[in-house]
């Protein structure tokens, strides 16, 4: 069991570790996984992943390929034209410059106790979506 205390008079750190601590761990301790803000809540709690017989689950990491599969399932023709049209309205991705090595650098700033706790909080998600427990 981990105990956290944050001085309410101070703003939370906005580095990767600070955001992880404030947005995930503190919310988890203050109300459990079900009370966490939906963006940070374990995905297994965010829908009926086990009750619905999905025929497709896309992942952020493979979005470009996944959207093509979805469009094909709906028998949308001229997929490349549609994707090109959609790109015209897309806002710039400020994270597009991030690489795998940048991602790993962020994780190196996180204390090991916090990594272990994040693994515990999201264990079912890691298993369900076949994510590695130690990407770093």
From TrEMBL:
One GO biological process term: carbohydrate biosynthetic process
EC number(s) given by UniProt: 2.8.2.-
Pfam families recorded: Sulfotransfer_2
Swiss-Prot/TrEMBL keywords: Carbohydrate metabolism, Glycoprotein, Golgi apparatus, Membrane, Signal-anchor, Transferase, Transmembrane, Transmembrane helix
A GO cellular component annotation in the UniProt record: Golgi membrane
UniProt topology in membrane: Single-pass type II membrane protein
Subcellular location: Golgi apparatus membrane
Homology family: Belongs to the sulfotransferase 2 family.
Name of the protein in its database record: Carbohydrate sulfotransferase
